[in-house]
Amino acid sequence: MSFTKRREFVFLYTVKDANPNGDPLNENHPRYDEDTEQALVSDVRIKRTIRDEWVRQNKLVFVDGKPKTLNTRFGELKKDTGKNKGQEVMGECIDTRLFGVTFALGKESFSWTGPVQLKWGRSLHAATFEFIQGTSAFSTSDENDQRSFRNEYKVPFALIAVYGIANQFAAEFTGATDEDLEEMSQALWNGTDNLITRSKNEHKSRWYLEITYREGFNGKIGALDDKLNLISANGDQMDREQQKAIRDLNEVIVDIGALVAALDKYKGDVETVRVIKDAELKLRGEEELKAFDFVNIETR
């Protein structure tokens, strides 16, 4: 049975000396807002993190990250599921149930709007983007003593927030369940910690807050990430240059006061709030959050 209660969530993770989301049309420069200098991460990148974790867990996904045609992938899934029709096969894949799919193969075509929609991730502060040059392992020819050069970009530090919402009405069409949503939240947290590649090392999950509303509530608080404010470890507001100088999580505090105030406003419609927190993250307003009787906090 598909899930019937609306959910909203916000996820925080840190990036250190890595590239959170390179732009292939801009020499793989980290995506960023030119006006605010905030680091950006596309919803596609976040979904890839989740899917990669599902692949590691041998869960059935439609987009498995390997280069292949739709016809080839559909043939593989037909063998795995024992089903032949596109909608039946897609209904067996956790990523299409949650994120939706556009399918067109042969005489069958359809489109599902995903129940889970993600906003682009954005750092809670202005960040620095560094261009690094180095030498590669090999020269360009056997006769050449000088090795070729490599170029790359990195972000010294970024605390990135990702907001998402789960729409129960869309779940009626895709069949997404409460169990699917639980699998997604776990894959988001664990998958971020498992981004262990040269460009993605030092990605670390820090905070996950998920609101489950009472059945029948069709509204939302909205943009939970905008209700988080980054301040210095001393409790002071920081200007842009001070923000760009941040290099470690222990230098900052996340003020969740605006989010707590929003929860208080909507508390009559909230069933539960689930929080997963990394022990190193410092929050202002955490005691007020704990005061709600519907909040459950797990520290890792």
The gist of it:
This protein has 300 residues and is α+β, with helices and mostly antiparallel strands.
What do you see in this structure?
Helices cover 26% and strands 35% of the residues. The strands form four sheets. Strands 1, 4, 7, 8, 9, 10, 11, 14 and 16 form a nine-stranded mixed sheet that branches. Strands 12-13-15 form a three-stranded mixed sheet, with no helix packed on it. It has one domain (7-57, 113-299). With 300 residues, the chain is α+β, with helices and mostly antiparallel strands. A hairpin with a 7-residue loop joins β9 and β10 (147-166). It starts with 6 loop residues before the first strand and ends with a strand. α1 packs across α6. It has helices at 43-56, 70-81, 86-90, 94-99, 168-174, 178-193, 240-244, 257-265, 286-290; strands spanning 7-18, 22-23, 29-30, 38-41, 100-105, 108-113, 116-118, 121-126, 130-139, 147-166, 203-213, 229-232, 252-255, 270-277, 283-284, 295-299. It has nine helices and 16 strands.
